[in-house]
Design a protein that fits this description.
Layout lengths: L1 H28 L1 H4 L17
């Protein structure tokens, strides 16, 4: 049972390291995945004076 717990611990640790590495290195190799979607939004605004 202890071996299973150790294995799960190391797998979780490895997954966390991979996630952090992907967050730092990912934009260099996969810039489209990290780019914000670009589109122009135009909405009419009605301003009413408050007196």
């Amino acid at each position: 049972m202890w071996r299973l717990i150790k294995l799960l611990f190391w797998l979780v640790l490895l997954a966390a390291i991979c996630l952090v590495a992907y967050a730092y290195v990912g934009p260099v190799f996969f810039p489209d995945d990290f780019a914000a979607p670009e589109r122009q939004v135009t909405e009419p605004v009605t301003l009413t004076p408050t007196d």
